[in-house]
Amino acid sequence: MKETWFVVSGSSKTTGYYVKGVRHGDDVFVMELDYVGAVCRIPASMVADMSHAFNGETEAALASTNPSPSPGSTPAGSGGEKIEPKLVSIHIRSLNCSVSVPIEIFPDAVKLTNGENRVVSTDGSTSLEFSHIAGSLAQQYERCATEEIVAAGQKNRHVQYKLLKDSWFVVSGTDASGVGGFYWKGIRAPTGGVNLMRLNYPENSTPLSDETLTAISRSFTGK
Predict the structure, then answer these.
(1) Cβ atoms of 38 and 13 closer than 8 Å
(2) Where are the domains of the chain?
(3) Residue closest to 97 by CA, chosen among 201, 190, 203
(4) pLDDT tens per residue across all 223 residues of the chain
(5) 87-219 adopts what CATH topology?
(6) Residues in Cβ contact with 217 at an 8 Å cutoff, skipping those fewer than 6 apart
(7) Which DSSP state fits 150?
């Protein structure tokens, strides 16, 4: 929630939604996107563009005042929304697959191409880690969903969301204290076993927006 706008989004196993409200005088204009399925079929970048464009301005206001950004300024939506960081495809050498990473948040992501498996955000608060685990996809999903696999310092996790598909799964939630959050995605590896992506972050200060997280997750496909 910001001074002049708010965004609320979420999903279940069957439906999802994205709602943005913008102050316009004494009123609030609302845009509501509803979709069937746990994953929206509209690309995250397009949803972000739609959200940025919905800023409460009317046709009359646009016709009379539509200032252009000054040279060198950073485009932003209503209320100073920040533009989503650019994602760069990085090859994960140890897993022989790729993932799209926001370089401005994870500047040392290039280490993944050299065989390292873990990178951290610019402030060190968020980590992105990759690994390969033997066993079937269903077995590893069960282990992640029932908290048998834990990252360092994340014992007794509270799983809040989990989803198993034919070739991938997602498990997310918070740690026991409720301060830290996690988002893990496992994909069936071409040579057997499971490739696992683990994102761990401070619940109240993650540098990743929902749109950026969705884009990272969708890019991690095992190819």
Answers:
(1) yes
(2) 5-80, 87-219
(3) 190
(4) 888 889 898 887 788 888 999 988 788 999 998 888 766 777 776 777 788 788 766 543 333 333 333 233 233 444 555 567 889 999 999 999 999 999 999 999 999 999 999 999 998 889 999 999 999 999 999 998 886 555 444 456 788 889 999 999 999 988 766 668 889 999 999 989 999 999 998 866 778 888 899 999 999 998 8
(5) Protein Transport Mog1p; Chain A (3.40.1000)
(6) 170, 183, 185, 197
(7) -
